[in-house]
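User: quick one, fold this
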Amino acid sequence: MLYRQVLRKILKCGLLLIVVGLLTASTSDEANAGVIGGIRKDLKTSQPVESSQDDDDDDSWSSCNRRHRHCHDDDDCDSGSLFAEVTWCLVKGVFSWTSAGAECGYSAVGSMGENGTPSHRATLYSQLHEAPDYYYSLYPYQHGNTYHLDQGNYERRYLGATEESLNNYVNALVRDNARDTAQNLRAFYGYDLEGTGVHLLSTTWRSYHQDTTLDIDFDTLLENIDTGFNGEQEVDSLFTGSVMVSRSFFRRPRFDWRVGCGVYWLGTDGYGGWGLGLSTDLDFFLCKPLVLSLECDLGLIGSFTRSSIRTTIGANWKHCEVFGGYEMLTISDTTMNFAVCGWRLWF
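Assistant:
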């Protein structure tokens, strides 16, 4: 009889320890999930609600939306190919949009060095009339306190009614490496100022064509989290990026303000999605060698938002710029504040 009572107490204590252990493990998992784990939990609980087929038929983005929504129903859907297709459609549309001006600017200016007939000169003057208001230097401060070269200044100084003045105009543009296209490549590292241990790695490719800009951005968030076993840690990750197309809203030799739209995407363990958003950014060439940049964007991926604000100030020497600054990145309900530093190549 005593033996049975002791056995019952042991069983009760054992069951109690198991329940306490399970509760502790569950709490520990949530505590050790980290910032990225918290974002992942929010994303998984905010899956977009699908619309009916009738809504799809009435949507102006019908082909893209139907395929995007069907991907949620089809486990075999290739989200990578979908993203590539959407990106290609966007880029193709932008280049079609700017095709009317693709033959203007430096591509036309480069042919002006040829000595042609009067009819040829008339064609060149017609192309000059459609030339962009500003050309790009090879890099900031190549020609004084500016990055954008004022086409009107060259026209006033060199262009006249004679063949010689036309050649002088062309020679001045060639001498100053004036172009209607330019690129830059930027990479930086960010550390969370709140001490959560989240690291940000970012790379951006930017291509200018006259007043149109194409940005391709790729960001990686990394975080070391405790596994709960003997102090071991593992790396959690989240990937996000965008393809944005913008137009110069206001441009001067030392200032360029752009506004645009594009596609955002995000991927992490157990979740992936894409959406649309808006962006605005500016570059202000204060005085040699300082470059001030400000970028803001807001996008919707599924049923949650992704936004960021970034400001940097850098020192430029020829083709290379080294900068530091601040970025606030918000994904769903999580906001992270980063101190950033990196470099940018202009070419």
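User: anything notable?
Assistant: The CA atoms of residues 266 and 273 lie 6 Å apart.
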